[in-house]
Amino acid sequence: MAFKLPDLPFAQDALEPHMSADTLGFHHGKHHASYVKKLNKAIEGTRYAQMALEEIIHAAADESGKQDLFNNAAQHWNHSFFWNCLTAKGGGRPDGELGRRIEADFGGYDKFASAFKDAATGQFGSGWAWLVVDGGKLKVTATPNAVPPLVRGQEALLTCDVWEHAYYLDYQNRRADFVDVYLGHLVDWSFAAKRFANQGEGGRVAAHRYQKAQHKFAQSGKAEEGGRAARQAIEGDEAEELERARRKTAARGGK
Asked: Over the chain (255 residues), what is each successive 10-residue block's mean pLDDT?
């Protein structure tokens, strides 16, 4: 299946003056669009064409010689996620359960904001700063280049793109100023809160872990051993015992 460039969840000029329409025109309309185009070209006619985006990312991350595929798939995922982290008149402190968990896990919103800014400004070169769930606890992390938290087994709640094309037209080399504006005026905490409420056993990270465990189990030969044991039980003494019990139940009229 071919992937499509998602529409922005807001008008191109909706985030001004904090993020200009020109920045979004280049960032979404050119950079993100280029990742989608290259991704579709890379998967055309291959086994990846039938995979969901997260499956492609995991598969390419685990396979040598697939760095270009990984980069374009991951950047499509990262950017699609990033647009949903932004909103006009956003920013400030989150409330609700996510706000309480930030207070508990970081020791207060200010400590979270400081850790997030340090991760964003401390990422050398291109990359991303994230708020994630890791092992049931909220954490701040940074990833280089195209790497998303999902390949580290983390559930992403929020991200800030710190590639230069995300902020250079508006802030030049002042990445720290961009991150301050992001936290103060652009963050869509309602999106992060929904992610937080829905994360857990039903999350995509958990699903991928389950799939990998199933694959490992099958590869280990234990699945085949289990099948043989089941067949032996059906064909052996246990089957006879089950049949005798069934007949006794039937003789009592199912009682």
From this structure: 94 98 98 98 96 97 95 98 97 96 98 98 97 97 98 97 98 98 98 89 44 44 43 44 53 53
Q: Cα dihedral angle (31, 33, 37, 40), rounded to 10 degrees?
A: 110
- Asked if residue 230 and residue 139 are part of one domain, the reply reads no
DSSP letter string, 108-122: SHHHHHHHHHHHHHH
Residues 119 and 243 in one domain: no
The C-alpha atoms of residue 103 and residue 138 are separated, in whole angstroms, by 10
Give the global pTM. 0.79
- Asked if the structure places residue 15 within a domain, the reply is no
- For residue 225, how far is the Cα from the chain centroid? 35
CB 159 within 8 A of CB 86: no
Say which CATH number the domain at 153 has: 3.55.40.20
Indicate whether 113 and 238 sit together in one domain. no
**Is 239 contained in some domain?**
yes
Where is 128: in which H helix or E strand? strand 127-134
Same domain, 186 and 228: no
